[in-house]
What we know:
four-stranded antiparallel sheet; globular; alpha+beta; 42% helix; 23% strand
Amino acid sequence: MGRAFEFRKARKMKRWSAMAKTFTRIGKDIVIAVKEGGPSPESNARLRAVIQNAKAANMPKENVERAIKKASDKDTANYKEVLFEGYAPHGIAILIETATDNNNRTVANIRSYFNKCNGTMGTQGSVEFMFDHTCNFRIPAEGQDVEELELEMIDFGVEEIFADEDGILMYAPFESFGAIQKELENRGLEILSSGFERIPQVTKELNESEAADVEKLLEKIEEDDDVMNVYHTMQESAE
Length: 239
């Protein structure tokens, strides 16, 4: 198995439940998608992807429809996607994806978390290069031969594919998202969920005390309402 598999395994075991804001995050994703490409899932590929993720997260259909309707309202605030970078204690790089309707507030909050936990907020590009920006798709495993599917999907950018208890997961570079989404839809394959992740190219192992210092900062960042995802270079155990 490759790096994406190990990354996914560790995150799923340790961090997946850390941010109990799934519906809120999906709601923001819907607003961004609708403002970008309109309220029709048929003509808006990004919105289709978000609706798939809402379904996978068991978000009620009426919540999704309400969010789409609200996002279509001209008075609804638009969210801007902003990336923050910095270092936690012990040289751990942190990359933070946010969706905010008030950038000044978000900048001040993120900076305060770094300051309170002996971290350093970095400038644009200071740590982003340490992570591979990837996209992923999950489809049902039933009736699929993973090896055969991998050979067929390589042409569309898929670099890693593996099966787990929830289906088949494919990883590819960020820019391959559209081509893979289109091909899976053309094949009539159900997309259970899709998304983007930033996989650290190199991770650093810390002792228990050092890891606790980093976790303190990560928890503060993850609790912020504007934060969508947090990635870091600390080695995580899948135990």
